[in-house]
Write a structure and sequence with these properties.
By secondary structure, the protein is of the alpha/beta class. It contains 9 helices and 7 strands. Helices cover 43% and strands 15% of the residues. It has a 7-stranded parallel sheet, sandwiched between helices. Strand 2, helix 2 and strand 3 form a beta-alpha-beta unit.
């Protein structure tokens, strides 16, 4: 029960990694606040977890909606101990290299992946600090550390997440709030199925051959990393980026 008595908010908690994290955090004793834009998926996860969860429909790209969601957490639960900024979008059929990138796609990606992290941190941190501190886990990507062509909007937001994580880690650790991020790759989520696996040019076998562990990652693999970072077990980890990619980013190309 590594999170017993804690309240943790998870964005994008209705599917994929967010859903896996919600399940895991709740089994470890946390009351989980599901911040999810899709009412159906968020409601289903909340129903599954029962009185261990609170669902709040939240569009993380809307600062007013985010502010109200965290105000509701404070009103109804009275505290907050952890925030997992998991919500992300990748428009695989529209993202592109800068010169070919439609600016609407760029702004849509930034709105969720970059602005959403800023908004959630802005409104969560005062509650965390008031309650004696806590932890924040952000979601980066292997795209933040490798030069992956053709997805420059996504890459830009994930690089920004890493930089913001480090800045906040320095600023807020003296105030009792640790900030870290996870850089996943090759995780078998709905996002991957809708982008890479639906792309006829994507060679799944070649991808798996280049991944040293020779398999796709599962949402639970990343949820376990998030659990460690959000829990007191990582009490001396601050400003770190944990790369969870099966080793693909360290694999030589030749």
């Amino acid at each position: 029960m590594r999170l017993e008595g804690k309240v943790c908010a998870i964005t994008g908690a209705g599917s994929g990694i967010g859903k896996a994290a919600a399940r895991l955090f709740s089994t470890e004793g946390s009351h989980v606040v599901l911040l999810e834009i899709d009412e159906d998926s968020g409601g289903r996860v909340a129903a599954e977890l029962g009185d261990r969860a609170t669902f709040i429909r939240t569009d993380v790209s809307d600062p007013d909606a985010v502010a109200e969601s965290f105000a509701q957490i404070d009103r109804e639960l009275g505290r907050l101990d952890g925030l997992y900024n998991n919500a992300s979008v990748f428009f695989g059929d529209r993202d592109a290299s800068v010169t070919d990138l439609d600016l609407d796609t760029y702004h849509e990606t930034v709105a969720v992946n970059q602005n959403g992290v800023v908004y959630c941190c802005k409104y969560a941190i005062p509650i965390l600090e008031r309650d004696g501190g806590g932890t924040i886990v952000n979601t980066a990507s292997s795209a933040a550390i490798s030069g992956i062509p053709g997805c420059d909007a996504y890459t830009a937001t994930k690089g920004a997440t890493v930089a913001l994580t480090r800045a906040m880690a320095v600023a807020y650790a003296p105030r009792g709030i640790r900030v870290n991020c996870i850089a996943p790759a090759g995780i078998l989520t709905p996002m991957i199925r809708e982008s890479n696996l639906s792309d006829p040019s994507f060679d799944e076998q070649a991808f798996l051959t280049k991944t040293p562990v020779r398999r796709w990652g599962q949402p639970e693999d990343i949820a376990n990393v998030a659990l460690f970072l959000i829990s007191d077990e990582s009490a001396y980890v601050n400003g770190s980026m944990v790369v969870a990619d099966g080793g693909i980013t360290i694999t030589p190309m030749f």
